[in-house]
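quick one, two chains, predict together pls
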Amino acid sequence: MTATLTRPEQQQVSHDGYAVVVSAAEIRVVGDADAAFVRGDDDALRRAYDQHGSLIFTFCSRALGPERAGDVTQEVFLSAWRARDRFDPTKGNLAAWLTGIAKNRIIDSVRAEKRHSDRRAPESAADAGVIQADTDSLGDKMLVADALRTLPERSRTVLALHYFEDLTHPEIADRTELPLGTVKSDIRRGLERIRQHLEAQHV
Amino acid sequence: MSDGPHTTDDEGRLDAILRSLTDEDLRLETPPESVWAGIESSLSAGSAVQGESSEGEAIAPVIDLASRRRTPLLVGAVAAALLLVGGLAVILNSGDDDNSVEFASAELAFVPNNPAFVPLGAGHTAAVTLLGGPDDETVRVDSADLPDAPDGSDLEIWLIGFAGDQADIVSLGLVEDPSAPGTFTVPDDFDRAAYDTVAVDVSVEPNDGVETHSGMSLVRGTLT
């Protein structure tokens, strides 16, 4: 077999002095949990639940209360599992996708409850908009918190000092004894990571 | 996901969400056991889902953050919990002769059906160890069964740091002999603490004067 030594078409952008050759979605070694989920591997649903069950349950509990949270969490994982061929791990991560499904289920549940308790008043467009906006906003917060938990420790520390303690970049550099450039790139990269974590939630 | 990227691309909005996070937002509730049991029983009627509720292996991020303040919480408890999930924190072994510590190792293999790999790598392997010395880190190739580089090309060994959907890549050098052990120094500016996972990659590089990775990998493995 002859290898054809032609460089494939790809994006090459400079990133902190290193060339990023291809996106991680292409470069990542196959066999990670998100891909296993799409393939429907034997224990993939259990692994997804172990990894994201608390996130989804917490979201449901905050939106609907603890009593209904369990049922809706079940629905989210069941419908995600049944629709797993629609999840594309190259376009976003499983946490975001599950959160997107949870948003829809929560909205359905809030509406059903409202209809049940207030049978005579049909839902107004304004009501629907408020339910949608509240649920979206809470889901985004849950995902941002989730993204923070998945960041490397140093990025997480730097972001926490910046956003929770309102320290400036030089103050963070002083506090952590990291070079200022490292602080800046950690924040920039951390934000980028969080932004990516939020993608693919629409189902 | 048919709607594509959504509105949080807006930087100001992400900024606002981050600033608005409270302790409550950072706290995770643990679902009662009945939740998984319900999922399992719903599925058992249809296609079976295997996999047990193995508490020991579960890596659910169940962290009670209630009583802590935010910053120490983020740098402390959460950080500790996350070390279970990944990273290179496990010191596998302590070296003695040369004052170096074995941080992690990797088995490099060809990955089929991945556009980043060329068929030349199929069936080839290598084993590497990441060592930390007093001054710098090195990647030691313990054994290698790599193909000969085609005429007009070289084999090159790389470190790839993965952080979310981003990957940074840095060259460690050319592989002189495709079947011989060797040692490569990790450049000082590659900070593996900045990544979730780090992989070692061997690629075939055409002698075309382009220094970046060719995108043609032969074998790769994640350091654990």
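Confidence is low (pLDDT under 50) at residues 1-8, 47-97 of chain B.
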